[in-house]
Amino acid sequence: MYKVFLYSLVFSILAFIVWGSFFEIEIKIAISLIMLTFLPAISKRFYSWDATIRKIKAALYASLFLTGFALLLSIGSIIKGQHIDFASLWFTLFLFLIFLLGSVVYGVPVSSFSDLATARVTRYRFALAFIVHLGFGLISYLFLGPLMYFALIVAVVFFLFDEFLRKQTSKHRETKMAT
Q: How many domains does the chain have?
């Protein structure tokens, strides 16, 4: 009984903080939906330990990949003969943190929802999961505006890394079952 009271208290405080803030309504709705995925009744169906670890790895790999790409662009300007711009290097670090935060806070619940929605689909699961990831990337326009294009790129890269890790995990399980 105390768990129900504790969860109710924590979510009431978080809801008050979110809805009492000066955020725009789109951000309030997005944060509230993400908060709901952590309710115990929902999280049992939504998150499994192995899948969550895989998705966090995918978020980290996607963030590192995109940050590495941005870093290569910065290094490319240095190679062309321009001076070293430490502001662009700091901005690259900032991009990594933003990519990682967005991937973990928004991408992991969306990817878990995608897994739940495509659990019984066998033939077109990859395409359907891609559409779900892309759709939620497009929905990010509500609270990111024109920066939604970055969210779409992150969503696609996150999806590709998650699918790659899913294949690796299933191959590992098949190998383990065969022995």
A: 2
Residues 6 or more apart whose CB falls under 8 angstroms from that of 42 comprise 36
Is 59 a domain residue?
Answer: yes
**DSSP code per residue over 90-105:** HHHHHHHHHHHHHIII
Per residue in 39-62, pLDDT tens? Answer: 666 666 666 778 888 888 999 999
CA atoms within 13 A on the CB side of 61: 16
What is the reported pTM?
0.73
Determine, yes or no, domain membership for 42.
Answer: no
- Say if residue 9 is in the same domain as residue 67: no
**Residues 103 and 158: beta-carbon distance below 8 Å:** yes
Segments forming the whole domain that contains residue 10: 1-36
Tally of CB atoms within 10 A around 80: 7
